[in-house]
Structure formats: C-alpha cells, structure tokens
Amino acid sequence: MAARITNRPAAPVYHDVSLLTADDLHLFNEGTHYRLAEKLGAHLIEREGAPGANFAVWAPNAETVSVIGDFNGWRAGEHRLMPRGGSGIWEGWIPKLGPGTIYKYHIRSRHDGYQIEKSDPYGFYHEPPPRTASRLWQLDYEWHDQEWMQRRGSANVHPAPISIYEVHLGSWARMPEEKNRPLTYRELAPRLASYIKDLGFTHVEFLPVMEHPFYGSWGYQTTGYFAPTSRYGSPQDFMQLVDVLHQHGIGVILDFVPSHFPTDAHGLSYFDGTHLYEHSDPRQGLHPDWNTYIFNYDRHEVRSFLLSSALFWLDRYHADGLRIDAVASMLYLDYSRPEGEWIPNEFGGRENLGAISFLRKMNEVVYREHPDTQTYAEESTAWPSVSRPTYLGGLGFGFKWDMGWMHDTLAFFEHDPVHRRYHHNQLTFRMLYAFTENYVLPLSHDEVVHGKGSLLGKMPGDDWQKFANLRLLLAYMYSQPGKKLLFMGAEMGQWEEWHHDSSLPWHLLQYDRHRGLQWLLRDLNRLYTTEPALHQLDTEPAGFSWVDANDADNSVLTFLRYGGRNEGATHPENDRRQMVLAACNFTPVPRLGYRVGVPERGWWRELLNTDAREYGGSGMGNAGGAAAGNEPRHGRPFSLTITLPPLSAVFFKLTP
C-alpha cells in the first residue's frame, strides 16, 4: 500500500528515549559495531510503564523519515523520526504499539524529492511474500540445547567428522493433500532431525533462510538480513527447528549472502534516494550475472551492518557455522566482467580490497565471539590461503569448498567406463593440492539444477550401472581427505534434477535400489564418524598416502587413510589401529586376484563393499577380508590379494 502524505499535525513521537549511545553512533560510523540488531530497527520497549516501540534507521540523505503502518492509516508524516546528530540515523519512540504491528519506513530524500517506502533493514520478522512490510516482534525463546552448546566445539574442530546434509527448507517435504504447501519450521523439526540422525549426518546446512522476496532465488537474493523467512513460520518457530536439531546432536550451518542483494524497491537498494548500501557505479555496484547490487564494502556503516548480521545468527539463533556464498565474486573486481567494464583498485589490480578486508574482519570477529563455530567459503578460484588465519595472510575461513574436486570428479564419472583410463588424472590431480586448504568436498544443490540433471542421471550405463556408479561416487567421496557435503535427494537416487517447488520423491524408497543407496549412505556416515582414519587427519598430509595412483589401464585407485598417531608411533603407518585401505574400481569389469601393497602383516577386515546385495549390488566380495602375505608390492613389505567388484569401492581395516 502506498503511503499517503498528510498535512494533519504530527502524532506523538518521543525523542527523549533512545537505545543508541554516543559510543554506538561512533562504532557504527567507524564500521566496528557488531551488534546493531540490539540498537537499530524496531524494539518493543516501555516508557514510564506504557507500551510502545523504538525505531531507528540509517538514512543519511533523507529529508524526512516517518514510520507508517496500519496504526496510522499508512499516512506519511504523522510519526516522524528525528536525526541523531551527524550519524545519519533517524530515531524515535511511538506509544501504544505491540507485537505483530505492521510497519514500514517512509523516506523523503533530499535528492529530487524522491520518496519511497522501505521495509526495516534490521527487522526481525516480515510479512510473508509477496507482501513486504515488517512486523514488530520480540525474540524471546526458552532454549533446551544447553548440552549441545556446551560440547559443540568438539563437533566443529578440524579433526572431527563433519558430514553435512544440505537442505532447501521449502522442498524437502510438502503436503500434497494441502495444495502442495511446504512444511512449517515446527513440522519440519522432528521429521528432519530424526531423518538426519538416522542417516548419520553430523550437520545440516540450510540454503539461506533469511527473508527473500523471490522464492525462486532459493534465498540467495536476501532482503531481510536479520529475519528468517516468514514463509514457514515465526522467528521462534525457526528457533525451535534449530533447538530440536541440536537436541538430536546435529549442528546447524546457515548459508549467508554478503556478496549481493536484490534490486527490489522495498529492500536495501537506493535506500534513501542514493546508492547507500551499494556502489553507485554499475561497474562496481551491479552484478552482471544475477542483476543484483553489490555491497559497498568500503563504507563503514555497511560493514557494521553485515558484520552485525553474521553475528546475529550465531548469537540469537544458535547457529554453529556460516557458509559464505559466492566468495569469488567478492574477491575480484573483474568477476564476470569483460575488459573495460570494471574499475581497478587503487594499485591497478583486480582484487577487491574492501571485500577482502571485510571477509578477514568477519572471520576474526566470528571466531573471537564464537570460537566453537566455523565459517565455510564457497570459493571457486585459486585464491591462496582462503582457510588460513588472517595473521598468516589468509582470509581466515575455517573451511573452503573444493570446487575443483567436484568438477573433476563429476566430469570423470560422466565418461563411459571404457574411456575412463584416458581421464585418470581427473581423479589423481586433486592430491597435488588437497592439503593447501581445509577442504569440504561438496556435491551441492548447484550440481543438480538448470538442466544439469540429478547425480544419478549424470551416471553412464544402464540402470544397474547408474546405481553402481553413484554408490561408487559416494564411497569415493567418503574415502577422500576432506569433510563431506551432500544435497538432499541424492541419498535416495533422485532421477530428476531438483525442483524448488516440489517435494523430494520419497516414494522412490519403496524400490530396492533406491532404498539400498540410502542404506549405503547411512553406512558410509557410520564408518566415516566411527573410524578415526577417515576423519581425524582430513586436513593434514599425514592422513593420506597413495598405494597405487597409476593403474589407469584398469581404472583402479588404491590408497591408505590414517588417523591420529598412537603414543610412541613415529609415523601413521605404524599405528595399526587407525589405518583404512580404500580400493576403487571405476569399470564394470571385476578385478579378481588384484594385489595391493600394505604396510602391515595380518588380517585386513572388509569394512564396507558398495557391491553388497543390500545396497543393490551383485554381491561380489572378499568373504569378510583378506590376509596380508609376505610378497612386497607398491613399495610396501606386504600385500593383499583381493577381489574388486565391478564399479565398486571396498574398504579394509587391519585387525589388531
């Protein structure tokens, strides 16, 4: 609803009540205020026993700022805020307002008489889209996750097993009997928590839950940086979802998007009649791929806004980590821009110095305030030291997505097995850089949309081979150094690519092959979390060694994974208890009598075989394991003679 301008006398707005101190204003303008959600926006507070709300908004180029809503007939000018010195902030307290009150800011700019209605950039709760007003709300909630919060640090450290189930809340499950509506936060809580716990994932990662006007953006075009989307319920409903997941021992990672924001008129764009949050020059301020605005990271108040948003989700919603989207687009001024359509930095380079400084500061602040959490960078280039501390010159992230592994591995698997011998290096190349960063191996939502097909659909061959290939892909991922991330639906062998407006195809689990794939993933998670060799040294070179990386003719890879050393052990290979052998056959040809070098004599028990019948395989295997004989092989003093089933991965562990 458009605001009406009125000449009626202004309604009472009290300006002698303020949440903002002089220090707040100084830190905000300096770019070092990290908890602005406690000061800016709308807060329900009493004045001399009377209910009301305090409003504060940053609009330095405004001539007037009014609060409009149902309570004043959406008439601009009736409840005017007053400027706070030279801070650019307008503030005031309005009586007789309570929870649920709908409101916006009406801004009249000093520039060309520009007028606009804006939702609250610091609003805690907004109307369900397509409506765009903000709601007065309190964030009171009684948490029951104290046990998790006390021990979560041990679940987030680099040596811990981190296996992430990536979820889009609106399409994990729907209610077909109710016009295909998505589940609410409260409906999701018990179902999602039980499902993730049963499959053995340690963490869940939500595609952005922050309020966004366009559902088809999956949340990546954020307008409400301090509000969970109201599509699925209230802020307290989302808190309960996090709470229940924590009570099931599941960490919660939130997708966070400080890289760009949409051009919607009610949002941050052209906020006070000027390019306030974004750069004014489209060569810096307009993203060519998504037609969205890019934050001006050099502006101190924008840095305070984004840093406060990052901490807000850790403070108020107990998030255990933030996955930062599209980091590469932040780092490079020429990202997706042809020559002549970007502006170099002050030194003539292509690096976005403001964004680099912001990312480093964000990571420093997050780890200082919440040292038991992690940040994850989706960064797709060769930028050095993304996941190294800032005091060593890094960007300061805890982990980085290994996009190179994802691209190379999927490209290899899409080849017909008869041609894979010629592409063997697509698998082995990764080990040249595998420990330069702390990596997460992602098979994310981006790989199953926009015509790319599902993971199962990418696999070559007939149906049997497709499932065998997918089982092999998942097992290969779990055997590699690095934390794991899998997008929902892959665990059941979804045939079609992901659609954000449809439920996952749960009916597939009535079929043996789909159910078998799910069983395999459950066993992979169990093995990954219980075998130290498969997770403790994920980020260290001591956790991996090739047995044979060069058997391209047979398309076979064999390697050893190691856990932490026993007391007195001089090398991981001397630790008999924490050593796992992985053997992967990337062809449909069984390899019988295949000899593999190992460092220890003894019985090597078969831990997992993706060709097992219960997973949908042919049932070929090693009768429980193999004994290491005295014949040297692959530079090691002993060797196993094993059977490698078709299109399979087999894991072995030395029995003490």
Gyration radius over CA = 27 Å
Which CATH class of the domain at 4-135?
Answer: Mainly Beta
Number of strands: 32
Largest sheet: 8 strands, parallel, barrel
Strand content: 15-25%
| Low-pLDDT runs | none
Tertiary shape? elongated
* CATH topological fold name of the domain at 4-135: Immunoglobulin-like
What is the end-to-end distance?
A: 73 Å
**What CATH architecture of the domain at 4-135 would you give?**
Sandwich
Alpha-beta content class: alpha/beta
Q: What is the arithmetic mean of pLDDT?
A: 95
Strand order, sheet with most strands: 11-14-17-20-21-22-23-24
Give the count of helical stretches: 13
Descriptive overview:
This protein is of the alpha/beta class and 656 residues long. Among the domains are: 4-135, Immunoglobulins (Immunoglobulin-like); 533-654, Immunoglobulin-like, CATH 2.60.40.1180. 22% of the residues lie in helices and 23% in strands. The protein has 13 helices and 32 strands. The strands form nine sheets. An eight-stranded parallel beta barrel has the order 11-14-17-20-21-22-23-24, surrounded by six helices. A hairpin with a 4-residue loop joins strand 25 (544-551) and strand 26. The longest helix has 19 residues, at 512-530. The protein is elongated, with a radius of gyration of 27 Å.
What does this entry show, briefly?
The protein has 656 residues and is α/β, with parallel strands linked by helices.
What order do the helices and strands come in, and which of them pair?
Elements: E1 4-5, H1 22-30, E2 41-44, E3 52-58, E4 62-69, E5 75-76, E6 82-83, E7 89-95, E8 102-109, E9 115-118, E10 134-135, H2 146-156, E11 163-167, E12 174-175, E13 181-182, H3 185-199, E14 203-206, E15 210-211, E16 224-228, H4 235-247, E17 251-256, H5 282-285, E18 286-287, E19 292-293, H6 300-315, E20 321-324, H7 327-331, H8 353-369, E21 374-377, E22 399-401, H9 403-414, H10 425-428, E23 439-443, H11 455-458, H12 463-479, E24 483-487, H13 512-530, E25 544-551, E26 556-562, E27 579-585, E28 591-598, E29 602-609, E30 625-628, E31 638-644, E32 648-654
Parallel strand pairs: 1-5, 11-14, 11-24, 14-17, 17-20, 20-21, 21-22, 22-23, 23-24
Antiparallel strand pairs: 2-3, 3-7, 4-8, 6-7, 8-9, 8-10, 12-13, 15-16, 18-19, 25-26, 26-27, 27-32, 28-31, 29-30, 29-32
